[in-house]
Amino acid sequence: MTTSRRVSRRAVLGAAATVLAAPPLARAKPASIVVASSGGKLEEAFTAAYYKPFTAKTGIEIVSTVNTYSKLKAMVEAGAVEWDVAQMDSSAAATNAAQGLLEKLDYGVIDKTDLIAGVPHESYVPCDVAAAVMSWNTKNVKAADVPQTWAELWDMKRFGGQRGFWKQPFQTMEIALLADGVAKDKLYPIDVERALKSLDRIKSQIFWWTSGGQSAQILIDGDIAAGMTWNGRVFDPKLAGAPVDFNFNQALFVADAWMIPRGTKNKQAAMDFIAFTLQAGPQAEFSKAIPYGPVNRKALALLDKQRLAFLPSSEENLPKGVFQNFDWWAQNGQKVGEVFNSWILS
Fold first, then answer.
1. 233 and 210, same structural domain?
2. Which residues pair with 187 in a beta bridge?
3. What is the C-alpha separation between 75 and 82, in angstroms, rounded?
4. pLDDT digits (tens, 9 = 90+) for 178-187
């Protein structure tokens, strides 16, 4: 015998509401997540400002590993993703996004309200602000000759010796265009021919460095009088009394970025972690540990004036420079790199 029972619409809605109110199984938190980063002082700052506080708040342990760039693509394509979150240079993040290797970020979870304009991207989000800056050896450069613009750094009369630049088109071409008089809001799309002509003017006097550590050391040792370096590389030596200084005039702002590899098993926890790191409090703690500026504007109020003077994203320094267009380089970097390398060898 079969018995049927009619269920009222109210009962159905009531049952649905009960289900929606219950904690979803998908929100069950993992015991740990894996965060891949570039290590060193950046890793130390991440640990102090983000990893330990996030674990204290959520109970989720952070397992750190090295962010080998090529590994991300291999993992995603093999369907064997080991990382939950990765930190990389924003240009690399933009390239990974363009290749479809990243999850889309949930800005319902990640609050972008107070982030610097232009920071949030669909599949990656810059988490700090560093800067390619003018720097000089204070013994080799008189106070009256300190460069205030890239054009002055190009001046053969002012700087007759070697000047240091990164042996890459990224950032170097933007600086060459600024030195040639291009307005900072007109840098993109990069005029490759004009940038190379600008570099041609000082090519015979360029010391090509290939790592951040080298860029600082050649300045400190006096191998060059002045050049381009990253603010974080000369900040500690300057405070320690090394003969080196820098300014943020016409700085090119670059950034590390968070991203979530496509196919991670802990997507929600990864999203929660990124959201935590972009809050004002953790951002301020990060900038106390390393001289990279916060991307959350409210973090600035939590930092003292002495620290703000050395941070790229402070209210004083941010208007002096321009952000690199990470997406432009993701789309054009390979072909421009080939042209640049040919020019180097010519």
1. yes
2. none
3. 7
4. 999 999 999 9
- Evaluated on CA atoms 237, 40, 230, 45, the torsion sign reads negative
* 209 token code pair: 């460095």
Q: How far, in Å, CA of 101 to CA of 99, rounded? A: 6
Check if the beta carbon of residue 147 is closer than 8 Å to that of residue 128: no
Phi then psi for residue 336, to 5 deg, are -70, -35
Residues 83 and 182 in one domain: no
Task: Give the residue from 33, 36, 30, 32 showing the smallest Cα distance to 257.
Answer: 36
The pTM score is 0.89
SS3 call for 7: coil
pLDDT, tens only, 43-69: 999 999 999 999 999 999 999 999 999
Strands of 191-321, DSSP E: 206-209, 226-230, 244-254, 256-259
Buried (b) or exposed (e) across 207-235, using 16+ Cβ within 10 A?
bebeeeebbbbbbbeebbbbbbbbbbbbb
Q: For tokens 């004036």, what's the residue?
A: 305
Do 37 and 114 have their domain in common?
yes
Partner residues linked to 80 by β-bridges: none
State whether 38 and 141 are in the same domain. Answer: no
263 and 224 in a single domain? The answer is: no
Compute CA 58 distance to the chain's CA centroid, rounded to the nearest angstrom: 26
